[in-house]
Structures are given as structure tokens and as C-alpha cells.
Amino acid sequence: MESFYTIQGEGYYQGKAAYFIRLGGCDVGCVWCDVKDSWDASRHPQQSIDEIVSAAAAYPGRMAVITGGEPLMHNLDTLTAALHEAGFQTNIETSGSSPLSGEWDWICLSPKKFKFPLPEILPLAHELKVVIFNKSDFAWAEKYAAQVSPTCKLYLAPEWDKSKEMTPLLIEYIKENPQWELSLQIHKYINVP
Ligand code: SF4
Questions:
Q1: What EC number(s) would the UniProt record show (predicted)?
Q2: Which end of the chain is more exposed for a tag (fewer CB within 10 A), N or C?
Q3: pLDDT digits (tens, 9 = 90+) for 38-72
Q4: Whole domain around residue 137: which residue ranges?
């Protein structure tokens, strides 16, 4: 769908330079999705893996973030092997709702209520990022926190349009449950892609 060099605005690598590769196609259907244009893969031009990797390599950063859409709707073995070959760290942002493919240095799992993650991806996640849209989502976040590995980083993120209302609740929750950290979409605050 698009690719761009920016800083990672969320989660463990927040603030780091990263080349984002956003793949078209998503069958999850989150009501609050902010990239609905990504859902229909056929609306976006196909690019070869060589073109994608060469464009990424034109910048000095060597962290690639594959996102979507739901990137695991595609088999990512060849793309991630080519990125590794070119010296990139490979990170993915996924709902985990399609089978895992690809060679990953970092898996950020963001489970969605609209299509659940497959159980086999949960122990492989390096980072669990749960979007909080309403109060019941805290219990939902704990359900998944209980299924990831003990070393997995835990993040709660307010849904953007409800962030004014939800962020104070997140802060109180994290103070009571300090295994969680707050993840803000800082790229939206500083107005970068
Ligand atoms: S998984 Fe991501 S791209 Fe797909 S609908 Fe949900 S927020 Fe949008």
C-alpha cells in the first residue's frame, strides 16, 4: 500500500528510525480502524520484493517494520529473508489472526476482538500491544497477557479517538498493574506518518 521512512511512534521501539512497509489486505474489520484504505489489497499496486528492499536500503536506518492491513495475509518468508540479507532487523505489527510466516526479529502482537489471534502466535510475541477502546478491554488485555511468554513486553494503548477519555483510566490501571506500560501513538502527536 505504501512505504515510508519515519520514526516508530508506538511500543518498545518508540522513537527509533524505521522504514515502514504497509501491505494491503485486511480481513479483521476493526470498527475504529484508521487505515481502512488498506483492507482491499487489489486497490494497491504490486511491487517486487527487490523494489521494496532497494527503496528501504536508500535510507540509513536498518529497522524495517512490516505492517498493514494485516500483513500475515501474505506469506512473508521471501520478503523477510531479503530484508535480512540487506542487513535489516525485521519487525512485524500483526493481529496474529492469520498463520505466521517470515523470519522475525521482533513480533508485536496486537490482538483484535473482531478476529482473534491464532493461539500458536501468542508464545512467540516479543511485545503485546492492546488497544483500549472501553473499560471492558482491560480484562480482555489480561486474558492475552496470561498467554504470552514471561519476557513479552506488555503495552496498553488508548484508541486514538477516545484517548482523551481513556488515557486517564490507562494511567490509573498501569499504576495499579505495573507490568503494563503506556504506548501512545506519538507519530500522531508530532504529525509524522
Ligand atoms: S487489524 Fe489493523 S488494519 Fe485490520 S481492521 Fe484492525 S486496525 Fe485496521
A1: 4.3.99.3
A2: C
A3: 999 999 999 999 999 999 999 999 999 999 999 99
A4: 2-189
Q: Model confidence over 114-169: pLDDT tens digits? A: 999 999 999 999 999 999 999 999 999 999 999 999 999 999 999 988 888 999 99
Number of domains composing the chain: 1
The answer to whether the CB of 72 is under 6 A from ligand 1 is: no
Longest dimension (CA), the chain: 48
Q: How far apart are CA 188 and CA 112, in angstroms?
A: 21
- Nearest CA residue ID for atom 3, ligand 1: 69
The CATH number of the domain holding residue 40 is 3.20.20.70
Query: pTM to 2 decimals?
Result: 0.95
Type of residue found at 127: E
Residue 151 Cα to ligand 1 midpoint, Å, equals 26
